[in-house]
Fold this sequence. Notes:
Radius of gyration: 22 Å
CATH topology of the largest domain: D-Maltodextrin-Binding Protein, domain 2
CATH class of the largest domain: Alpha Beta
CATH superfamily of the largest domain: Periplasmic binding protein-like II
Strand content: 15-25%
Number of domains: 2
Shape: globular
Strand order of the largest sheet: 5-1-6-15-7
Distance between the termini: 65 Å
Helix content: 40-55%
Number of strands: 15
Structural class: alpha/beta
Largest sheet: 5 strands, mixed
Number of helices: 10
Amino acid sequence: MGRKRKIICLLSAVLAVIVITGCGQQKSAEKTSNQDNAPLKVATNATFVPFEFKSEENGDFAGYEMDLIRAVGKKLNRDVQIQDMAFNGLIPALQSGELDVAASGMAITKERTDKVLFSSPFYETRLVILAKKGSGIQSEADLNTHRIACQMGTIATDYIQQMGLKAKQFDHNADALMDLKVGGSDAVVAAKPVLDYFAANNGKDDFVVIPIKDTPKQYVAFALNKQNTKLQKEIDEALAEMKKSGEFQQIYKKWFGHEPETLPVTTEDALQAK
Length: 274
């Protein structure tokens, strides 16, 4: 009889752990954004020009993605609260429920979709190399004899590792670019818009942007807690309304000077694009 009672108690304890764990996962998604008019808690890594950076004029968050998330917030009738955070801390903060949205130039990848949800994509990009003119770097094949810098936790890091290369990894793209500028590294691998912007505005004709052959298209989107399908739907609907009204195109053209490319609508479509 005593043995039977012990078994029953053990099963009850296991069931309780399962229930508590399940509730905990649900609350991690619910404790942030499922209140209709609660402020939208957003984090970014504000060194990804022209997507997100600190304005030199007033210190406020500026950039394409910052304009976009604020416009989405207005559509949802919610204030947008933005904080700065290291890029590799964004997904853990989403998973814990600390954040509602990561707005930080995050590309949709299969690995990331196992951890978070993504909104509809709003930018198409590829990886490129930035090097000093006369460095001897003409393509990705030359990287194995040069010092490389990149931002940790990004698709650039993944690419470098897949190529069997080593790189100096920094918390911010700005730090990697500074390292290149002062001669600590010979090349930076990062997303094309970031390096194009640097070469045009800060490079003073000393740098060259080099395409990487056969790299697939990548699509940038907002990232959300894996359980928060309600907010994902609301953001997707807001983006669709903005595209229909022309507001999305207006914001895009402000930062990139041309109309946006035809973009996939869903995460699945983005992952299948080549």
